[in-house]
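Weekly structure sync, notes
Attendees: PL (lead), two postdocs, one rotation student
Agenda item 3: pending single-chain targets
PL asked that the sequence for the first pending target be pasted directly into the notes so everyone works from the same version. It is reproduced below exactly as submitted, 64 residues in total.
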Amino acid sequence: MNELWHLLLVAFCLMLIMEGILPFLYPQRWRKLVVQLAQVSDRHMRLLGLVSMLVGLALLLVVG
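Predicted structure, written out during the meeting:
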């Protein structure tokens, strides 16, 4: 179980690094994107989230 928590922590840290790359490199573009995302409907946002989760799951199955 200790190894599982370690892997989850590593995955979380990598996610934070990936999430921070674009705002760090392109803060103005990132701000514009956030404003545009705020205008997207809930339905489309949920669809985007679902697609993102399914792609992540598929990649996890291929890699793992």
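Discussion points:
- Helices lie at 2-25, 27-38, 42-63.
- The chain has one domain: 2-63.
Action: rotation student to compare against the earlier draft before next sync.
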